[in-house]
Specification:
This protein is 22% helix and 28% strand. With 389 residues, the protein is of the alpha/beta class. It folds into two domains: 3-60, no CATH class; 93-385, 4-Layer Sandwich (Purple Acid Phosphatase, chain A, domain 2), CATH 3.60.21.10. The strands form five sheets. The protein has a six-stranded mixed sheet, covered by helices on one side. It has a five-stranded mixed sheet with strand order 9-10-11-13-12, covered by helices on one side. The protein has a two-stranded antiparallel ribbon with strand order 1-2. It is elongated.
């Protein structure tokens, strides 16, 4: 209904005088009226009786035929770009998930006999969920998959005795989930200094047993007393990069992954890597700290080689459960709480040709992580990763 229609109706009902008086008193001309609305309301008197009241609503808006008398703020007119939108690369990129240092191992409560994990099941759980959603082309376990505490060079607590078998079962389950739920084309386990403890202990105490193989084995088969054999890595289709600290796996001609052999106390280990090998990018474990450092190596007036160095943290506990120089035990052999300067996490790398990869570090804290706008919370693999004797 237009304003003229409303006016006519008001006139018939004898209310037009009231409207004209209101407009006049408020200095409102007819040209300022955009639209109006007639409707009915009601009210109750003191006796509780309902009375219907005719009401009118008027919306004031500029309505001059020649337009407004002041300049308006206009939305900018879109410009037409000569370049075409970037096309999504199909089939040319390669994604790799790097999982650092779970240090899988156990303590045993000397009173109850119950096992307590050194690894952090919640952190491992979150990393596996991210891998399941990313579906990377490759998964690299950066070393220290196992803590192998029983085979270390130092004296150990009785509460660490007979914990290797459950550790092996947990490590195998961790790899089983990677193979079955992440389902990548390439799986790598790099030997870390803790994984190497088994071979080192055998070499120290009974080196004749170091290279014992099954009777029907070939020279290429793993020795019986080795991590790859005990975990059944060949059956899983997992490549084991041996020879710590020399063992490396090259993702590209200029990007290497390794367990790590450098530690910078009180400063950035990633920066130390950059100083040692400035032209080669690397992901490494070992230091349990989440670090990213970039480097530009000037080779000439028109040539600069850029690289990136990443430590994605760890997947073990950071509260003193992993035996270290700062850890200790209670009277019943349980680890005493001592928070280390470590951070839990993992990293996703996306490569394309010779371009530096996209680096997506994932910070895991208290069994939760944000990744690509999604909140990940531990729980999906808790029952799988918990091993009972």
């Amino acid at each position: 209904m237009t304003f003229s229609d409303d006016l006519a109706k008001l006139q018939l009902e004898g209310n037009v005088g009231k409207l004209v008086d209101w407009l006049t008193e408020n200095g409102v001309g007819l040209e300022a009226i955009g639209k109006s609305k007639l409707y009915q309301g009601f009210h109750k008197d003191e006796a509780g009786d309902t009375h219907i009241v005719d009401m009118v609503s008027i919306e004031l808006s500029p309505a001059w035929s020649d337009g407004p008398r002041w300049p308006l703020i206009d939305r900018p007119v879109p410009i037409k770009l000569s370049s075409k939108p970037r096309k999504r690369v199909k089939g040319g990129s390669r994604t790799v998930l790097c999982l650092p240092d779970p240090q899988i191992g156990y303590w045993r409560d000397m009173d109850s006999g119950q096992l307590e994990a050194m690894h952090d099941i919640a952190a491992m759980d979150v990393a596996l969920q991210i891998g399941r959603d990313v579906r990377p082309d490759g998964v690299v376990n950066l070393g220290d998959l196992l803590d192998m505490t029983e085979f270390g060079r130092y004296e150990t607590e009785p509460s660490l005795d007979q914990t290797t078998n459950p550790s092996l079962r947990t490590a195998r389950r961790f790899l089983d989930v990677q193979k079955q739920d992440i389902g990548s084309d390439e799986f790598i386990v790099i030997e870390g200094n803790h994984d190497k403890r088994l071979a080192d202990a055998i070499a120290r105490h009974n080196r004749s047993a170091l290279y014992i193989r099954k009777a029907d084995a070939t020279p290429d088969d793993w020795p019986v007393f080795s991590v790859p054999y005990l975990l059944g890595l060949d059956d899983l289709g997992v490549e084991y990069v041996e020879g710590y600290p020399a063992g490396q796996h090259w993702l590209t001609d200029s990007f290497v992954v390794e367990h790590g052999k450098r530690v910078a106390s009180g400063s950035s280990t990633a920066a130390k890597y950059a100083a040692a090998t400035p032209g080669v990018s690397a992901v490494f474990g070992h230091v349990h700290r989440l670090e990213v450092h970039t480097k530009s190596l000037v080779l000439g007036p028109d040539e600069v080689r850029r690289s990136v160095f990443i430590s994605p943290g760890c997947l073990c506990r950071t509260d003193g459960a992993v035996p270290s120089f700062g850890s200790g035990t209670s009277a019943n052999g349980k680890p005493v709480t001592n928070h280390e300067d470590w951070q839990q996490g993992c990293v996703v790398l996306t490569f394309h040709d010779d371009v530096l990869p996209q680096v997506e570090p994932v910070f895991i804290n208290n069994g939760q992580a944000m990744f690509r706008g999604e909140l990940y919370t531990a729980g999906a693999y808790k029952e799988v990763l918990e091993v009972d004797e």
